[in-house]
Fold this protein.
Amino acid sequence: MELHHLLKGKKGIVFGVIDSHSLAWQVACKCVQEGAEVVLTNTEQAMAIGQTRQLAQTLGAPVIPCDAVKMPEIESLLKESMRVFGGKIDFILHSVAMSQNMRRHKSYTDVNYAYYNTTMDVSAISLHKLLQACMKSDALNEYASVVTLSFIAASRFMETYGDMSDAKALLESIVRNMGGIYGQKKRVRINAISQSPVITRAGQGFKEVHYFHHFAEQMSPLGLASAEDCANLCVMMFSDYSRGITMQTLYNDGGFSQTVMSGKFIEFFRDTMEGLNTVNKDRK
Ligand SMILES: NC(=O)c1ccc[n+]([C@@H]2O[C@H](COP(=O)([O-])OP(=O)(O)OC[C@H]3O[C@@H](n4cnc5c(N)ncnc54)[C@H](O)[C@@H]3O)[C@@H](O)[C@H]2O)c1
């Protein structure tokens, strides 16, 4: 894609790069290509096993560790980022999620409640904490843009997405409420991008993920939105071209969320369906 330097002069924090499959990896690369300066952050544990530091080296970006549920670490991330940038922050990507219940294939009705609390804390409340810390330290410039990544199961039933569905619903609610307050206070914009499935560490968290990818691909009129599509949308959301957008969940999903049944899906399953019709006729 042609470069437009849409983020020239902007400074932002990118959470959630663990390896080259991470959505945040693509976002960080695109932001730098478009002229931004970025700080990369993740937990110490994730960085010890992942490739956050390698990407940081390639991009010439500082790395500041932060566990997104620990307020003192969030506060020092903001302070240190402002020191590195020599001023306030223009954008933040919150790309953070984890569910021990999903990792252990615990069904929605059989969750471990200690894990459930952690799922909420890491995957949703961490955004609340981050925004509260930003407000208290006045870390964001006017019209700064904060984007978090969500999923369709925030508002639609999807059994295999387990307790993460509740976390995403809470996340989108935090986007609305904090967006309303921060918008009035400082013209800060807060939005969620509800992304098509992409195979990543977190994206492989639920059972039968490959079936779902196939299904979503057939059901999305444009096909699945890729990690690169997600990064391009993030760049747009961090740029001045989206100054009027806040408190939204934007569906970057190839049309999946608006589709009941696509022609592609019918074609894909025609043989199976015709087989079923024969069985039904035989029953009559
Ligand atoms: N991959 C998909 O299909 C998909 C679809 C829609 C939304 N999302 C969302 O995108 C976001 C990024 O996920 P991904 O798919 O790139 O997977 P990923 O595993 O690459 O990223 C998840 C990140 O969260 C970080 N993290 C976990 N606990 C943390 C903590 N306490 N503090 C700070 N960071 C922590 C991990 O270290 C990791 O870098 C998640 O919110 C995910 O739910 C993913």
